[in-house]
Specification:
Layout lengths: L4 H13 L14 E4 L4 H7 L9 E4 L16 E5 H7 L3 H19 L4 H7 L3
Parallel strand pairs: 1-3
Antiparallel strand pairs: 2-3
Helix pairs in contact: 1-4
Length: about 120
């Protein structure tokens, strides 16, 4: 599937608009960036199996861990465009997958781990 960079960004922005207003102040200063693919070194570092891919990544200090340590990098969410485009058949499917990925990564910012996300159906 193919969509322009602009259309992809629009879909990411639509997903961010799904975040309830009460949570938005906690997301200020957390950039959501789009990259083509996760580098192989990152996939290796995270232990992602060769037959799987990475659609998104939260990096940084979750809010539930208290204030970040001095010198710690600020939080950041990365959405990987390539795997999402490769896995989706049409724009509606892409919209749903982007929303799921964005919400999943935002949940990590709020301290929700993979096991809990799986329980909630966002795994």
């Amino acid at each position: 599937m193919h969509v322009s960079d602009h259309a992809f960004r629009r879909l990411v922005d639509e997903a961010l608009a799904l975040v309830p207003e009460a949570f938005r102040p906690y997301l200020e200063g957390v950039p959501v960036v789009i990259e083509a693919w996760a580098p192989d070194a990152l996939l290796d570092e995270l232990g992602v199996p060769e037959d799987e891919t990475l659609c998104g990544l939260y990096s940084g200090h979750p809010l539930t861990d208290g204030p970040p340590a001095s010198g710690e990098l600020p939080p950041r969410i990365t959405i990987f465009r390539g795997p999402l485009l490769e896995d989706c058949e049409d724009e509606d499917d892409l919209r749903d997958e982007i929303a799921t990925t964005v919400i999943h990564e935002l949940a990590h910012h709020f301290g929700i781990d993979e096991d809990r996300l799986e329980e909630l159906g966002w795994g």
